[in-house]
Structure formats: C-alpha cells, structure tokens
Specification:
alpha/beta, Rossmann fold, 12 strands
Length: 423
C-alpha cells in the first residue's frame, strides 16, 4: 500500500508535477481557491453515482487535447479499447467510460492518512507541494478510488500519456498495485526534471528521449525496469504522410506560442515589435498558449488573433502559419518534424532555460532580435534548412522506416490476446 511506500519515498513521488518542480512558489499561490476547488470536488463527487457497468479492455486515460490527438490514432486499432476522456474532443472507435464516478466513497479512506497530511502540511516533505495539501489529498484520493476500479473490473492494460501529473500517477500506481500492466506514450518532449520511468513499457519517440530517461534514472539513483520501445512520434509521422512530407503554405501568418514559464510582458513585447516593424506589415499574427493556460493574453489589434488549443489542434495551427516563433516548448520540435519554419526565442525570465536541449542541439535557429529573420523572409525561407539526421535522433519514425501506430497497437493488443504479434 502507499502508506508503506511513504516510509521509503517522499509523498511527492505519487503527486509529482513537473510544473511545480519548475515553479515551487506556485504551490503557495491562490491557496483559498485550491481549498475551494477541493470542497467543490467533494460535493460534486457526492452527487455522482458509482459506475455500475463492468469494464474490460485496454484503458486509455485522456486528460487534455494533446492526449486525445494521440489516442484517436491508436484506439481504432486496439482490441476492446475503452477510454476516459476529460476533453470535448470526439474519439472514433472504442468505448467511452467515466472512471471518476463514485469517487465519494473513497473520501472516508483518507482518515488513515490524517497523520501524514498534518505532518506534510506543517513541514512539507520537499519544495514541490509544500503548503499545498489539497493536491496531496486529491492524489491519494484518486489512488484509493482507482484501486476500487481495478479490483472490480478486468482492465487488460492502462495507457497514460503523461508521467508527471498527480492524476496520471495515481492511476499508474493503483494499476501497479493491482498488477495491471501499464504503458506510457509521452505526449510531448522530455526534460531531466521528469520523474523516472515506473511503468511496464514506455513507447518513446527516439534516442533523445531514451537517453534523457536514462539520465533521469541516474540522477534519481533509480534502477530502470521499464521496457523501452522506440516507436517514433507517430502523430507527426501520420500528418507528414498525409501532407506528402510537409505542412508548409504560402499564407503570410506568423505563429507565436507561449507556455506557463514564459513572461506575458516579454510575449506582448514580441507581438508589439512584430506589429510595429515594417518588414512584417503584410503578416498577421496568431498567438497560441500552452493547453494548460486558460487565461489568454489580450492583445487588441486587427492583425492578431488567438488559437485556442481546446478547439484547434497543434497540427491544424501549424498548417496555417508561414513560420513560428516560440519559447522553450515541445511545439518547437513538433513544428520542425512537420517541416514548418520555426525559430526559438527566449520568452521567459525563469532560471530554467533550454529544458529540452533544443537550443544547444540546434533543432532550429535561435534568434535574439527580429532582424535575424530578415534574410529568411527575403528568400521566402528558401534558405531555411531542416537537420534531418538530428530530427531522426528525436523521432525514430522520421525517415519512414518505423510505423508507430502499428507497433504500439500490436503491442497493446498482446496484453488482451497473448497470441497477437507485438513486433
């Protein structure tokens, strides 16, 4: 049980969250709001009925639109696929279920954690969730609830798309406790502040991701027992093939993307500079926040618009722009893999810089000033070069010799039907 586990490992192991590792002070913000959300969760869960249906099959946990865009390519190819979907995106194939219903009955089990909660709230086991007890409670609550789900249903395998949020980690550890096989398909790039691999099999995109997880295990002094399968970035591979290798277009649109670490002041200044520079007079600008950002930047100008990640996929966004300017974010690699012109720019005042190594490895040009874009614009980007050898290091399917969808689907099918091929 997790109580025994806590004697040896920090409770953060369960409720580990990359965002809080980057910004530990964030855990102290809006504390009243966090407690209010916890209270609302209790009331909502009381009103929800416990699920009565019997679940059997391969369970996909979809927590955001990025997960949905990955799952929708796999689910039609996986036998008895069932999925929990926290988005509005429609998934074709499989059967949608709700594994959150009935969670109220698990609240009584929190009593046995009372001493740990008090100790944790007073002292904090680390900087990650210090003074943020509601997240710790939610993580353990979900763990207890998922134990019930696995004990009363026949789940063949659990598939998660992130390993660094408490909701996914609760599902992961509950599955492991009940001896349910677990599979991990990263939804984005990996940095060395991620936790080590704990699942049975991880379908990694390429050698860069594999090397980083090996380094993570070394940093944590952790013996990696997860089977690693290089399956490529099957989502970008699918759209590359769909668009004959490229999503380039001739529309004069500049994409600007930003995430939670980026400074809103720096992002706004970048947009203002683009709008005031005569070189870009014929361009319009589309801003796109990270999917986790709900409060969008407000820039009132006729040549600007917003791309809502909840309504527009990253691929559709990249299809309609001429080039992208981005801070340190996975969309930099996604753009390069889709052969959309992309430039990396520092938009953050965070001490964490180049987390994914895109700058040091020259995944794309880094610009300090907008003037550095002029030679590319004058040549209509004919002088923009993609480093295909480097991109194949990131994506094992980049050269077309790996079919990630088939590789992953066959492997997952083997959990429900041992006679299936997992080649």
């Amino acid at each position: 049980m997790i109580l025994d586990d806590l004697k040896n490992r920090n409770i953060d192991w369960l409720v580990y969250d990359k965002a809080y590792m980057r910004q530990p002070n964030k855990s102290r913000e809006n504390r009243i709001w966090v407690y209010f959300k916890l209270l609302m969760n209790i009331l909502i869960s009381f009103l929800r009925k416990k699920p009565t249906n019997f679940y059997k099959g391969a369970l996909f946990y979809i927590d955001n639109t990025r997960h949905a865009s990955q799952a929708e390519l796999l689910i039609p190819n996986v036998h008895n696929a069932i999925y929990h979907n926290n988005t509005d995106q429609i998934i074709k194939g499989g059967k949608e279920i709700n594994i959150s219903n009935g969670i109220f009955s698990s609240y009584i089990k929190l009593v046995k954690y009372f001493r740990i909660f008090i100790e944790y709230e007073k002292h904090g086991k680390s900087i990650v969730f210090k003074n943020n007890l509601p997240i710790v409670i939610n993580g353990i609550l979900l763990y207890e609830h998922y134990l019930e789900i696995f004990r009363s249903n026949e789940i063949d395998v659990v598939v998660i798309f992130t390993d660094h949020s408490y909701k996914n980690r609760a599902l992961l550890f509950a599955a492991k406790h009940c001896n349910v096989p677990t599979a991990y398909i990263p939804h984005a790039s990996v940095s060395e502040i991620f936790p080590p691999l704990e699942m049975d099999v991880a379908f990694l995109e390429g050698m860069d991701m594999k090397n980083k997880y090996e380094k993570i295990a070394e940093n944590w002094s952790y013996e990696n027992k997860t089977e690693i399968v290089l399956a490529g970035n099957y989502k970008t591979n699918y759209y590359r093939n769909l668009n004959n290798g490229s999503v380039k277009n001739n529309k004069l649109i500049i994409g600007v993307t930003y995430n939670t670490l980026d400074s809103s002041f720096v992002v706004k200044k970048l947009v203002d500079d683009l709008l005031s520079n005569s070189i870009f007079d014929h361009y319009s600008i589309v801003l796109r926040p990270h999917p986790s950002i709900t409060n969008f930047l407000e820039i009132d100008h006729t040549r600007t618009e917003m791309s809502n990640p909840a309504l527009e996929s990253s691929v559709d966004f990249l299809k309609r722009i001429k080039f992208l300017i981005s801070g340190d974010s996975n969309i930099v690699l996604e753009a390069a893999l889709l052969e959309t012109n992309v430039f990396l720019k520092n938009l953050s005042d965070s001490p964490f810089q180049d987390l994914y190594g895109f700058r040091i490895k020259n995944v794309c040009p880094f610009i300090s000033e907008l003037g550095e874009l002029i030679p590319f614009i004058k040549s209509n980007f004919q002088n923009y070069q993609f480093n295909k050898e480097l991109l194949s290091f990131y994506d094992a399917s980049y050269k077309g010799d790996v079919d990630g969808v088939s590789k992953i689907s066959n492997y997952l099918n083997n959990f429900s039907d041992p006679n299936s091929s997992n080649s």
